[in-house]
Amino acid sequence: MASLGLYHLLFFLILQLSTGDDPIGQYCDNKSFKNNNLHVSINAVLADDLTAKASIGGFATTSSGHGDTLLYGLAQCRGDLSAEHCSACITNASKALPSLCPIQADERVWYDYCFMRYDTSNLVGDSDTSYALILYNVENATDPEEFDKEVGLLMSEVRAMAVKQENGGFGKGTSEFTPLVTIYGLAQCTRHLRPLTCAQCLSSAVEEYFAEYCTHRKGCRVLYI
């Protein structure tokens, strides 16, 4: 995938990547925007600004409105995504949010390679681990105990990469479990997070969800936003 919370962290463990125009998850809080017409207008401004900025640098924050109508926005692409594919993913996200969360003031959408969120709270600063999207492969690995050990070692490595400031909150790696099975691991925080906050957010994903949802699984993702 980091925080936005303010906001996000992205943590993934993946064996297989897929592409597509459809979101892999969304979240619409019960907070509603009182003036729907104004909400639509502000969302459009956020979408245009985030798409333009994130398409260039892979990450962007912005805001629009005043007082009770002030909304903050954040968007980020996966750290190894090209500018062209990042732009396409962010564009899809900006188009999807209005229909997914038409009246909500806290709107979030995840794609395989990017995510976007609008909220009345400032999304820059601390991590937000209040909601997690968890996706996992229903199939278990062969030799599951050894597999989990290898996954643990790999994820420790990519987490260490992600918390280094020079890596922009992004880490990925591979491990050859057998001659026929390669494990892919990835960890990502939103770029505005300090290294310590990034590390705490990633640790939260592992400690709170890994044992329950990811043990023995051939693939698993835990995403905050």
TrEMBL record:
Its main location: secreted. It is found in: Secreted. GO terms for cellular component: extracellular region. Residues 21-123, 129-225 form the Gnk2-homologous domain. Residues 1-20 form the signal peptide. Keywords: Repeat, Secreted, Signal. The keyword Protease does not apply. This is Gnk2-homologous domain-containing protein. It holds the Pfam family Stress-antifung. It comes from the Eukaryota. Belongs to the cysteine-rich repeat secretory protein family.
